What does this fold into?
Amino acid sequence: KAGVTQTPRYLIKTRGQQVTLSCSPISGHRSVSWYQQTPGQGLQFLFEYFSETQRNKGNFPGRFSGRQFSNSRSEMNVSTLELGDSALYLCASSPSGGLYGYTFGSGTRLTVV
Amino acid sequence: GQQLNQSPQSMFIQEGEDVSMNCTSSSIFNTWLWYKQEPGEGPVLLIALYKAGELTSNGRLTAQFGITRKDSFLNISASIPSDVGIYFCAGQLEAQKLVFGQGTRLTINP
It folds into this structure.
């Protein structure tokens, strides 16, 4: 059974640019969550999608957005990148919205220069 | 926002020793989860706890959901080299959101 797949694995962008990250959940999982991981702040919740609807959102500025498609694949977008957006972005999927824990992907390492 | 206090931040032990780490919160949670993360990978779920007072084992790992619903601990018995990594606790109140501790970095001397 394939795990959670995130692409790309590594990304380098310049300040002011925008970026789109992709996540394919485990087959049959309808809930997808996104987390940002940095050495200073640790793992921080960004948002969660279930059946194409955002159900919960963390405390991040509006530059961070996401969406989910009908096949449960999800994308997150960060516009007007700042140096502080450099982080490991993790996607996690769950069959039922997290009641039985989330399975994480390997993440996308974003570096903003 | 909500934060979990996880301790210790790091541990240096000898192979074969037992390990204990814990998480406390000022808020209650309905679920406690323990994850392990290795370099270049995402966190992997080790143990999930769903009921206050619950004690659950997964091989050499044992975790408990505190009776007050504000804390949890993880024990690893007879540590081996592959236990090296960063261990995270996570609390879940709303079904869609996990709140993570800052992690415990475990280093093992063979």
